[in-house]
Amino acid sequence: MKLQHIIAAVFVAGISAAHAGLSIGDPMTDTSVEMKNVDGSMVTIDSIKGEKGTLVIFTCNHCPFVIGWQDTMVELANTYAKKGVGVIFINSNDAEKYASDGMEGMQKMAKEEGYEFPYVVDATSDVARHYGAKKTPDVFLFDADGNLAYQGAVGEGGQKPKKGGELWLKDALDAVIAGETVENSQTKAVGCGIKFR
Amino acid sequence: MSIRSMFKHVVLLMVLSGLSACEKTPAPKALPATPDAIRAEIESSEAPLTLVHAWATWCAPCREEFPELLKTYAEYRDQGLKLILVSADEPDDLASVEVFLTEQGSPIGSLVATELSQKFIETLSPKWAGSLPASFFYADGKRVAEWEGKRTFEEYKEVIETHLTNKE
Q1: In chain A, which residues touch B (CB < 8 A)?
Q2: Is residue B8 part of a domain?
Q3: Full-model pTM
Q4: Which residue ranges in chain A fall short of pLDDT 70?
Q5: Quick check: A194 and B117 CB within 8 A?
Q6: Residue B6 is assigned to a structural domain of this protein
Q7: Which label site among A35, B24, B49, B126 has the fewest CB atoms less than 10 Å from its CB?
Q8: Which chain B positions have a beta carbon within 8 Å of A98's beta carbon?
Q9: Contacts of A138 in chain B (CB under 8 A)
């Protein structure tokens, strides 16, 4: 291998390491990866893209933060799905090590909580890696052009929403469907670390 | 000495040794702490290396990692490692934290964050995405290493020896 090839490879690897995960403005990725839905069908992010935007939430079945925010997340997802936002919930946890994150639990959760959108398995956890998702829940909202417009928490609070607290995801959804820039485009919250495969 | 008398002595000895053990190793306590109080605790550390570990009793990887963490602390506390535990459990359920720490044989208690806000996250590190468990190393008032996710004793050892060696 020529020296310039080695330098180029090191340079590219450096860039790749520095940009692990998506930043605001980056295009959606892994859109053609087939993931198994709770109804048994195979779903891609491409297939659920919305006309006004696309909401991708990395979540799971048992994390206290997911449980605490579940009603809010599902209500927002179901509501904005009707307004032209494509929605998908993705479970990237290793179900072999953590059985409660298996398909049976996912099906139960989707049914009991009234998911009107796909809840799929990221079988290699690579989708989470490529998005830069690290915990559950972790929200990625893309605009109509498929560029990342909002990333982070559902809203203000800890294990559950703070009374009277801000719902950052709702604000972001409203901005995205109006074709506007999201003012508060990145937020943070504590969550359960994704159990990567 | 009659059998009954011997039995009384044995029981008394067991009780006294139990009390003695309690005196030597008081049960680890859970203490609610605001982000400012957590920051103050970190900043007041005079240890050559301070490890702040964010965890929770309900977090499976945190529970799995805990013995490795305590092994690390036992190995390096006399060489200058201070461990500050910060739990993300509900602050109104301190008992769960204390029971877990006691079961694990933890020699130290844990702070319990009163709020899991962005301020709390930024207090530990602006780079932290908020996932549990997470570890942050501080030396001379600066954050010198950090990671998210569980680690082994060997992985802790590597970073600790690097930073403790640098202090020598």
Answers
A1: 64, 98, 134-135, 138, 153, 156-159, 187-196
A2: no
A3: 0.83
A4: 1-19
A5: no
A6: no
A7: B24
A8: 60
A9: 129
Say which residue the tokens 């309900």 belong to: B58
**And the tokens for B20?**
């003695």
Q: How far apart are CA A182 and CA A185, in angstroms?
A: 5
For the domain that residue B73 is a member of, what is the CATH number?
3.40.30.10
**What does the DSSP 8-state code read for residue A157?**
B
Number of independent structural domains in chain B: 1
Contacts of A158 in chain B (CB under 8 A): 88, 113, 115-117
Residue B103: domain span: 27-167
Instruction: Specify the number of domains making up chain A.
Output: 1
CB–CB contact B59 A192 (8 Å): yes
Task: Closest CB to B149: pick one of A98, A190, A193.
Answer: A193
Tokens 């993705």 sit on residue: A90
As for the ipTM of the complex, it is 0.79
pLDDT tens across A103-129, in order? 999 999 999 999 999 999 999 999 999
> pLDDT class for B19, splitting at 50, 70, 90?
very low
Whether B130 shows a pLDDT value over 70: the answer reads: yes
Alpha carbons A66 and B68: distance in angstroms, whole number: 27
Residue A9 lies in a domain: no
The answer to whether the CB atoms of B118 and A188 lie below 8 A apart is yes
Please indicate, yes or no, if residue B34 is contained in any of the structural domains: yes
Nearest C-alpha of chain A: how many angstroms from B35? Answer: 13
**pLDDT at residue B22 above 50?**
no
- Other CB atoms within 10 Å distance of the CB of residue A162: 14
| pLDDT exceeds 70 at position B4 | no
**B24 vs A69, more confident:** A69
pLDDT number for residue B9: 53
Q: Under DSSP, is residue A189 helix (H, G, I), strand (E, B) or coil? A: coil
What are the φ/ψ torsions at residue A193 (nearest 5 degrees)?
-60, 140
Q: What's the CATH number where A30 sits?
A: 3.40.30.10
Task: Report yes or no on A79 lying in a domain.
Answer: yes
Residue labelled with tokens 């195979």: A42
Interface test with A, best of B120, B124, B131, B136 (most A CBs within 10 A): B131
Beta carbons of B156 and B74 less than 8 angstroms apart: no
Residue B12 lies inside a defined structural domain of this protein? no
> According to the model, what pLDDT value does residue B8 have?
55
Chain A residues near residue B148 by CB distance under 8 angstroms = 134, 193
Q: For position B18, what pLDDT does the model report?
A: 45
* B contacts of A186 (beta carbons < 8 Å): none
